[in-house]
Amino acid sequence: MISGFTNGCFDCLHEGHRHFLRECKKQCDFLWIGINSDSSVKKLKGEGRPVQKVSYRVDVLVKYLRENFDFSDFDYRIFDTEAHLEMLIRDLKPDILFKGEDYKHKTITGAQYAKKVELIPLLAGYSTTKVIAGD
Fold first, then answer.
1. Residue ranges of the domains in the chain?
2. Which residues sit opposite 33 in a β-bridge?
3. Fold type of domain 3-133
4. pLDDT for 66-97, tens place per residue?
């Protein structure tokens, strides 16, 4: 069984997120999803974010996963800091750590605890920033 891990804010779940999750799931049997806490999103994205509280973001994400996949193939964890995220990945020891291709030249938290890192091509034209702006 191949396990995977990815993480994100998942604020205003959009087609870009859905595409990313589908691509991750194609490459593993079980996918853990780390979800940034509200304080973590605010620290990363700034004032006015997250648009939706973590409980709502989790509900929307779980609903999408249940409607489109075998939900027993997923689990999620909420994390507060990069250090907490790294501990999660260290403890889970996924076979594959998934990130978007925009992380190509960035340090990927927890990469040393996965057997490999897989960068997933992003779906052009989709971002939470664009959703918020009404684009």
1. 3-133
2. 6, 76
3. Rossmann fold (3.40.50)
4. 999 998 999 999 999 999 999 999 999 999 99
